[in-house]
């Protein structure tokens, strides 16, 4: 395949094509490189205790959960980290309560018996 055809087919730049060819020549494969930086350290301990934390305080806000986590573990986490771990464990906040996602998928109503709102009054 011609270089221009490769670039057009895979929608990559010439520099990217050169980089992939160099990587294949040096390593024998074109695999994604590992992410740079240190691996996450706070998430594993938080993930292990998250279910217990959310079941104990289902009405807690993210700030309150972060403060409770500091009291339990002595490790400070941001609200963004807390939110990310909660989302990874598939918990959601419904009407001020933390619940697993699977609990919110079924409404508890038999199929076809959903309530319908009355149409708005016309003037």
Tag the structure with descriptive keywords.
123 residues; mainly alpha; 6 helices; elongated; 52% helix
Helical run tally: 6
How many distinct beta strands? 2
Helix content: 40-55%
Mean pLDDT: 79
Description:
By secondary structure, the protein is mainly α. It is 52% helix and 7% strand. The chain is built from 6 helices and 2 strands; from the N terminus they run αααααββα. The protein has helices at 3-10, 14-27, 42-56, 62-73, 79-88, 101-105; strands spanning 91-94, 97-100. The chain has a two-stranded antiparallel ribbon. A hairpin with a 2-residue loop joins strand 1 and strand 2 (97-100). Helix 3 packs across helix 5. It is elongated, with a radius of gyration of 25 Å. It starts with a helix and ends in an 18-residue tail after the last helix. Residues 109-115 have low confidence and may be disordered.
Describe the secondary structure blueprint for this structure.
Layout: H1 3-10, H2 14-27, H3 42-56, H4 62-73, H5 79-88, E1 91-94, E2 97-100, H6 101-105
Antiparallel strand pairs: 1-2
């Amino acid at each position: 395949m011609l270089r221009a055809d490769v670039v057009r087919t895979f929608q990559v730049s010439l520099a990217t094509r050169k980089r992939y060819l160099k990587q294949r020549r040096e390593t024998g494969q074109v695999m994604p490189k590992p992410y740079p930086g240190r691996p996450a350290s706070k998430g594993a301990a938080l993930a292990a205790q998250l279910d217990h934390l959310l079941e104990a305080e289902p009405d807690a806000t993210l700030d309150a959960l972060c403060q409770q986590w500091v009291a339990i573990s002595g490790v400070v986490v941001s609200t963004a980290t807390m939110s990310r771990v909660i989302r990874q464990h598939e918990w959601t906040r419904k009407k001020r309560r933390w619940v697993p996602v699977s609990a919110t998928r079924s409404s508890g109503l038999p199929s076809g018996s959903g309530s319908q709102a009355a149409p708005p009054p016309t003037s």
